[in-house]
């Protein structure tokens, strides 16, 4: 038996959620309005990269500009990092403080160990996490709308709660992602309790 729930989002994208035999499965696909969520174990993982605190903005273009600038700054020094192949990028939303409206964001690559990270490059070690995984196929600047739909609609309806004490979200950029265009898709992982 399949049940369907349509979830409106801030940018009028159609969200579709279905439950089949007790497993959470949903999907978002270009031109179809489907959204994908799976549960997976993620980590442990060590990342080398750049961490910055950003003042949050409800304007997706402003946040996209800030995060893009951080990624460009990181790219200038990324060649010295002994990253493991494939060279996939990760963006991690760490501390989000609603009171001060700030967010700590880390961008980086997987490395074999913290000891191999050059001086001046930050290191972030994540433990094993249980994550709800969502596919984001649109432009990277639209991620705020995807995160809003995930946290306000999808997780509560599925009885999933965000984990406390770790990252708020993880962006996993695949080899198909093009940083010049902001397209190519990514996975969004939400650590859940």
Tell the overall outline.
globular
Give me the count of strands. Answer: 11
**Tally of DSSP helical segments:** 2
Strand content: 35-45%
Q: How is the main sheet built? A: 8 strands, antiparallel
Helical residue percent? 10-25%
In total, the number of domains comes to 2
- Supply Rg: 17 Å
Order of helices and strands: EEEEEHEEEEHEE
> What is the mean pLDDT?
79
Unreliable stretches: 1-34
Order of adjacent strands in the largest pleated sheet? 4-9-11-10-6-7-5-8
> Which structural class matches the secondary elements?
alpha+beta
Give a written overview of the molecule.
It is a single chain. With 193 residues, this protein is an alpha+beta fold. The chain has two helices and eleven strands, in the order E-E-E-E-E-H-E-E-E-E-H-E-E. It has an eight-stranded antiparallel β-sheet with strand order 4-9-11-10-6-7-5-8, covered by helices on one side. A three-stranded antiparallel β-sheet has the order 1-2-3, with helices on one face. The longest helix has 18 residues. The protein is globular.
What attributes does this structure have?
2 domains; single chain; about 40% strand; eight-stranded antiparallel sheet; three-stranded antiparallel sheet; about 190 residues; alpha+beta
């Amino acid at each position: 038996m399949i049940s369907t729930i349509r979830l409106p989002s801030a940018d009028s994208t159609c969200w579709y959620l279905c439950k089949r035999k007790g497993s959470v499965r949903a999907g978002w696909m270009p031109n179809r309005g489907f959204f994908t969520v799976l549960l997976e174990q993620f980590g442990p993982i060590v990342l080398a990269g750049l961490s910055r605190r950003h003042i949050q903005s409800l304007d997706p273009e402003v946040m996209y500009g800030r995060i893009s600038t951080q990624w460009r700054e990181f790219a200038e020094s990324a060649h010295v990092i002994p990253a493991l192949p494939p060279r996939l990028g990760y963006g991690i939303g760490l501390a989000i403080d609603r009171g001060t409206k700030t967010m700590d964001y880390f961008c980086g690559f997987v490395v074999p160990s913290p000891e191999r990270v050059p001086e001046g490059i930050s290191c972030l070690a994540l433990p094993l996490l249980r994550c709800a995984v969502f596919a984001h196929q649109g432009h990277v600047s639209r991620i705020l709308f995807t995160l809003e739909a995930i946290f306000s609609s999808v997780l509560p309806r599925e009885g999933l709660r965000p984990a406390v004490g770790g990252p708020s979200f993880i962006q996993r950029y695949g080899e198909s992602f093009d940083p010049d265009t902001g397209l190519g898709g990514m996975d969004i992982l939400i650590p859940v309790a």
